[in-house]
Automatic annotation (TrEMBL):
GO molecular function, one term: oxidoreductase activity
Keyword tags: Fatty acid metabolism, Lipid metabolism, Lyase, Oxidoreductase, Peroxisome
Subcellular locations according to the entry: Peroxisome
One annotated GO biological process: fatty acid metabolic process
UniProt KW Lyase keyword: yes
Domain (Ketoreductase) ranges: 9-201
GO cellular component terms listed in the entry, alphabetical order: peroxisome
Name of the molecule in the record: Ketoreductase domain-containing protein
Superkingdom, natural source: Eukaryota
Portion of the full sequence shown: 1 to 305 of 715
Record-stated family: Belongs to the short-chain dehydrogenases/reductases (SDR) family.
Lineage of source species: Eukaryota, Metazoa, Ecdysozoa, Arthropoda, Hexapoda
Length: 305
């Protein structure tokens, strides 16, 4: 099979000074992309700054690749996109990867812990994406990756702030994929699990050793390639394995026995087991299906009332 290359493409990868982002940067650069290695260089809780994007840029250049460092915070995402335009004249790929953790049980979680985590993950992805969007629209081409987490999809104790922001990115991806469809802008989400400073005290040591971030990089790179046609996918990946995640909806039930019956708190209680029975649950691919379902339901409701 021919190698999937990125010659002529410019990629911006946020939070690429270490962990997963670094592996994405190394792989895309090795395959010919010009890369903006963005990293604020903060500690894992978002505090402080340093230039560790430089190490990644050096490694890329030493191997003959092309990269520049960018030290802006993703909350100033427009400056990161400007770095791509100023240095390389275009942008084709945006990987929203930067992230921090401020884990605390909810009672102890301050408003600052909530705001900072949302600022980096959700607002940061909005800022970079919004700035890149005008270029993607004009050139009828773009590849965007959001980074979610199992903590967002399933919830995780002590991570209410992070879980909320990470699931927010899934909604952002779904809606933006629709807006990008006719402009050849593909928007997808990675749900990674890998060894990094974010997981060093969470994953058991043997797992930590095995879960190399470079095992996830090919998945992200494939979804960033011009040949990749999928959009609105949420892809879980770890340990050289990948799978798709999506929501399903139960078949559900009317909340009354006879058409003339009222819907009461008690009837909801009676029918609850059927409401939450996931046998036969189905995935809804498009919001239009929900609208059609609503129209059908309205007809049934009016006929029964
Ligand atoms: P990491 O800490 O090694 O990488 C995150 C990088 O983002 C750091 O280098 C950090 O300096 C940078 N960063 C933080 N705030 C920034 C800001 N405001 N602007 C620019 N850069 C900033 O951790 P990682 O595990 O490689 O995480 C990468 C992404 O993957 C994150 O979004 C994280 O939430 C997500 N994620 C990771 C895992 C995992 O198992 N490692 C699981 C689920 C989700």
């Amino acid at each position: 099979m021919d190698l999937l290359r990125f010659d002529g493409r410019v990629a911006v990868i946020t939070g690429a000074g270490g962990g997963l982002g670094k592996e994405y940067a190394l792989l895309l650069a090795a395959r010919g992309a010009k890369v903006v290695v963005n990293d604020l260089g903060s500690a894992r809780d978002g505090v402080g700054k340093s230039n560790f994007a430089d190490t990644v840029v050096k490694e890329i250049r030493d191997k003959g690749g092309v990269a520049v460092a960018d030290y802006n915070s993703v909350v100033n995402g427009e400056k990161i996109i400007k770095t791509a335009i100023d240095n390389f004249g275009r942008i084709d790929i945006l990987i929203n990867n930067a992230g921090i953790l401020r884990d605390k049980s909810f009672l102890k979680l301050s408003e600052q812990d909530w705001d900072l985590v949302h600022a980096v993950h959700l607002k940061g992805a909005y800022k970079t994406t919004h700035a890149a969007w005008e270029y993607f629209r004009k050139q009828n081409y773009g590849r965007i990756i959001m980074t979610s987490s199992n903590a967002g999809i399933y919830g995780n104790f002590g991570q209410t702030n992070y879980s909320a922001a990470k699931l927010g990115l899934v909604g952002f991806c779904y809606a933006l994929a629709l807006e990008g469809a006719k402009y050849n802008i593909k928007v997808n989400t990675i749900v990674p699990t890998a060894a990094s400073r974010l997981t060093e005290d969470i994953l058991p040591p043997d797992m930590f050793q095995a879960m190399k971030p470079d095992l996830i990089a090919p998945v992200v790179a494939y979804m960033s390639h011009e040949s990749f046609d999928g959009t609105g996918h949420v892809i879980d990946s770890t340990l050289g394995y990948a799978s798709k995640v999506h929501f399903v909806k139960s078949v559900g039930t009317p909340l009354k026995k006879k058409p003339s019956d009222p819907v009461t708190i008690e009837s909801v209680k009676d029918f609850w087991p059927k409401v939450v029975d996931m046998n036969g649950a189905k995935h809804i691919d498009k919001i239009a299906e929900v609208s059609m379902d609503l129209a059908d339901r309205l007809q049934v409701f009016e006929n029964r009332a």
